[in-house]
């Protein structure tokens, strides 16, 4: 036998290429396949693992094809996993989830409750369907993956805006039209609690409020300003706290629309006069929706205050701005200041020190205005503009003023058209 | 003609010590009632007239407190609703949720249903009462306010956003009259079957990584959550940059 190692480039190539149709065959040839000892046990030859790589180095694939790294183009296409479809045909009963739909989309709270509804159906058995009941404008596109079997969208001018009386009449009608096993509401300040209480009073049901542990038989809810756990039989109407169950994430659902017969809405005794303009700086910073925050990169403070006023933003500041005496301590955002929950946060001339970043952890959209494209705030931001803060704020104020002008003249035009 | 305002009060619970106190929202309701009706405000409690907490409410400047005398286990609702039926009230004020008992916040709703009155929930202020209508400010999340008008008579539940209650003066509180009437004797029959225990801490939700392989789990545990940053505008003019910010603000409905 000669000592010369004879390489078979084609065999090596096939063995390196796990996608090759002959790969498995060559691999088992190389490893000799399954070898059984005299007692019938599988024996492994430990030196015969792996294969010789292109540069002659032995490679061992210990992931056995389980690697998470994308394997070329093929897996990129396969990445969008189609979740299994959960189908409910002609359900015997429904569980109604009246979603808050803040901004027209399901909130995390709503999704938890949808998950709970499926848990209740699984425990009770029977052919039940989960219905998302929504009012007003609906922008949600992912009802199917949130666990919604049916969507009941109650539309009509009477239900728009703040219309709890009309909405509760519609819900009472739903109760009459469908076989409803449970009504689930988020116990939230977005209107879920109000609507649930109205419906309970209307239907004469005793609801469980602030419920947080629910199964088909028993409900544990908070009482006496959250100092007491009350255990009782699961009632028909439940108002649920956040994180009462896990949201659906492994199935897809039909989200078929269902309809409600016409509701005769009686004249409202409560009339909505719209939102009030509130002074943005009077809103507690932790609650504010839109914050314009100033850091060491602000040099024209009068302009900054003016910009906050024009944009209608609550003012915030980094610690440096506060320490230098340009802003009051109560406006400091960050670890030693306030932790904010704004939806949009504009950081003007803030570098993004970790102490500051902690404070904006819950912010949805960060916009950075900075001269330094490499700073940490730019890495965090959804939109960063690199430039001098004074110039950009001036342009921004101009745009806001223009916008106000046009919307005012639009209104005037509408009014004159109406007249 | 001044309007008749009734404010319902209950025994509160201090969040840290657990001692009885005047309930926060109820005392805000009394404060609002005092603003609307002055000392003509009728303050009603269903329970025991011996309750010392009632003196704390009375110390806000009330000459008398109406007490519907009843046992602790009795349901407060029938007593209050029959009392309200005998009074010609225009506005009834309550808290959003009581600080003791079930804390369900259903009282104002059930009263409204029984009396057939409208209810406005989470009121921050009642601005004006005129021509059989009241202008009411509702407290919304994120410090926003909604203005609504509602026909008299109505029930309002007062939010924490309403004006804080004035201090309570001990002496006048002690001197106030407790006018006892007989309340209801109806037991709360449903509640008897409940079991109550001190609240357990709720478990924090863990971030469960549903990864199939060890490599995925490792990556989930170590990788920085925010990898790629958003859009960066470097070479555009200040005007274009401002426009991009402004478009985002409009898209997010911050500016309307
Ligand atoms: C114990 C401790 C607690 C702390 N707690 C907090 C806290 O709660 N909150 C907090 O904010 N900080 C806190 N800090 C301070 C923190 O570490 C940073 O020092 C601080 O956040 C930096 O503020 P800054 O980004 O405004 O300033 P800098 O880091 O000086 O950043 C200024 C930024 O402005 C940019 N800039 C300069 N000129 C312009 C211009 N003309 N136009 C546009 N951009 C410009 C620069 O490029 C730079 O990125 C804490 C520190 C410690 C030690």
Automatic annotation (TrEMBL), chain A:
<feature type="domain" description="Electron transfer flavoprotein alpha/beta-subunit N-terminal">
    <location>
        <begin position="95"/>
        <end position="280"/>
    </location>
</feature>
<dbReference type="InterPro" id="IPR001308">
    <property type="entry name" value="ETF_a/FixB"/>
</dbReference>
<keyword id="KW-0813">Transport</keyword>
<dbReference type="InterPro" id="IPR029035">
    <property type="entry name" value="DHS-like_NAD/FAD-binding_dom"/>
</dbReference>
<protein>
    <submittedName>
        <fullName>Electron transfer flavoprotein subunit alpha</fullName>
    </submittedName>
</protein>
<dbReference type="GO" id="GO:0050660">
    <property type="term" value="F:flavin adenine dinucleotide binding"/>
</dbReference>
<keyword id="KW-0249">Electron transport</keyword>
<dbReference type="InterPro" id="IPR014730">
    <property type="entry name" value="ETF_a/b_N"/>
</dbReference>
<comment type="similarity">
    <text>Belongs to the ETF alpha-subunit/FixB family.</text>
</comment>
<dbReference type="Pfam" id="PF00766">
    <property type="entry name" value="ETF_alpha"/>
</dbReference>
<dbReference type="Pfam" id="PF01012">
    <property type="entry name" value="ETF"/>
</dbReference>
<dbReference type="GO" id="GO:0009055">
    <property type="term" value="F:electron transfer activity"/>
</dbReference>
<dbReference type="InterPro" id="IPR014731">
    <property type="entry name" value="ETF_asu_C"/>
</dbReference>
<dbReference type="GO" id="GO:0033539">
    <property type="term" value="P:fatty acid beta-oxidation using acyl-CoA dehydrogenase"/>
</dbReference>
<dbReference type="InterPro" id="IPR014729">
    <property type="entry name" value="Rossmann-like_a/b/a_fold"/>
</dbReference>
TrEMBL record, chain B:
<dbReference type="Pfam" id="PF01012">
    <property type="entry name" value="ETF"/>
</dbReference>
<dbReference type="InterPro" id="IPR012255">
    <property type="entry name" value="ETF_b"/>
</dbReference>
<dbReference type="GO" id="GO:0009055">
    <property type="term" value="F:electron transfer activity"/>
</dbReference>
<protein>
    <submittedName>
        <fullName>Electron transfer flavoprotein domain protein</fullName>
    </submittedName>
</protein>
<dbReference type="InterPro" id="IPR014729">
    <property type="entry name" value="Rossmann-like_a/b/a_fold"/>
</dbReference>
<keyword id="KW-0813">Transport</keyword>
<keyword id="KW-0249">Electron transport</keyword>
<feature type="domain" description="Electron transfer flavoprotein alpha/beta-subunit N-terminal">
    <location>
        <begin position="11"/>
        <end position="186"/>
    </location>
</feature>
<dbReference type="InterPro" id="IPR014730">
    <property type="entry name" value="ETF_a/b_N"/>
</dbReference>
<comment type="similarity">
    <text>Belongs to the ETF beta-subunit/FixA family.</text>
</comment>
């Amino acid at each position: 036998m000669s000592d010369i190692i004879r390489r078979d480039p084609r065999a090596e190539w096939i063995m390196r290429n796990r996608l090759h149709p002959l790969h498995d065959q060559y691999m088992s040839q190389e490893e000799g396949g399954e070898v059984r000892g005299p007692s019938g046990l599988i024996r492994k030859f430990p030196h015969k693992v792996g294969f010789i790589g292109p540069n002659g180095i032995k490679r061992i694939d210990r992931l056995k094809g389980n690697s998470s790294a994308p394997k070329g183009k093929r897996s990129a296409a396969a990445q969008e996993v189609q979740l299994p479809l959960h189908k409910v045909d002609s359900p015997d009963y429904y569980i109604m989830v009246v979603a808050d739909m803040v901004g027209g989309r399901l909130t995390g709270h709503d999704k938890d409750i949808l998950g709970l509804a499926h848990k209740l159906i699984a425990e009770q058995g029977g052919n039940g369907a989960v219905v998302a009941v929504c009012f007003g404008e609906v922008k949600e596109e992912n009802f199917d993956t949130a666990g919604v079997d049916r969507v009941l969208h109650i539309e009509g001018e009477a239900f728009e805006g703040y219309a709890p009386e009309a909405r509760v009449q519609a819900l009472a009608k739903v109760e009459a039209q469908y076989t409803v096993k449970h009504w689930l509401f988020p116990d939230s300040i977005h209107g879920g609690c109000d609507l649930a209480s109205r419906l309970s009073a209307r239907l004469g049901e005793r609801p469980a409020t602030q419920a947080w542990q629910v199964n088909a038989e028993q409900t544990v809810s908070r009482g006496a300003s959250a100092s007491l756990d009350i255990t009782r039989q699961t009632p028909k109407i439940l108002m649920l706290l956040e994180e009462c169950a896990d949201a659906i994430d492994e199935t897809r659902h039909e989200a078929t629309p269902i309809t409600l017969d016409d509701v005769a809405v009686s004249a409202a005794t409560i009339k909505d006069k719209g939102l009030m303009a509130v002074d943005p700086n009077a809103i507690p910073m932790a609650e504010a929706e839109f914050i314009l925050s100033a850091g060491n990169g602000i040099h024209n403070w009068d302009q900054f205050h003016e910009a906050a006023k024009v944009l209608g933003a609550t003012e915030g500041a980094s610690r440096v701005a506060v320490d230098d005496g340009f802003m009051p301590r109560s406006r400091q955002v960050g670890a030693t200041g306030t932790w904010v929950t704004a939806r949009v946060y504009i950081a003007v001339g803030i570098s993004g020190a970790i102490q500051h970043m902690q404070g904006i952890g819950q912010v949805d959209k960060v916009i950075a205005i900075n001269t330094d494209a490499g700073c940490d705030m730019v890495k965090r931001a959804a939109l960063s503009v690199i430039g001098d803060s004074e110039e950009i704020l001036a342009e921004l104020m101009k745009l806001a003023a223009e916008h106000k002008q046009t919307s005012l003249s639009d209104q005037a035009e509408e009014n004159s058209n109406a007249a | 003609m001044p309007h008749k305002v009734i404010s319902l009060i209950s025994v509160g619970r201090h969040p840290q010590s657990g001692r009885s106190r005047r309930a926060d929202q109820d005392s805000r309701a009394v404060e609002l009632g005092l603003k609307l009706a002055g000392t003509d405000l009728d303050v009603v409690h269903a329970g025991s007239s011996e309750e010392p907490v009632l003196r704390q409410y009375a110390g806000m400047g009330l000459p008398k407190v109406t007490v519907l005398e009843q046992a602790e286990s009795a349901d407060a609702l029938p007593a209050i609703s029959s009392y309200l039926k005998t009074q010609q009230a225009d506005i009834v004020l309550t808290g959003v949720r009581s600080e003791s008992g079930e804390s369900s916040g259903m009282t104002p709703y059930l009263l409204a249903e029984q009396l057939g009155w409208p209810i406005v929930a989470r009121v921050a202020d009642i601005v004006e009462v005129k021509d059989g209508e009241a202008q009411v400010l509702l407290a919304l999340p994120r410090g926003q306010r909604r203005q609504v008008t509602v026909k008299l008579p109505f029930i309002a539940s007062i939010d924490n956003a309403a004006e804080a209650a004035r201090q309570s003066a001990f002496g006048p509180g002690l001197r106030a009259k407790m006018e006892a009437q007989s309340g209801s004797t109806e037991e709360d029959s449903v509640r008897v079957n409940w079991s109550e225990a001190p609240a357990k801490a709720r478990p924090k939700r863990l971030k469960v990584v549903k990864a199939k392989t060890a490599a995925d789990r490792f990556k989930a545990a170590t990788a920085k959550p925010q990898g790629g940053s958003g859009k960066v505008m470097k070479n555009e003019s200040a005007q274009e940059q401002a426009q991009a910010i402004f478009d985002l603000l409009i898209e997010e409905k911050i500016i309307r």
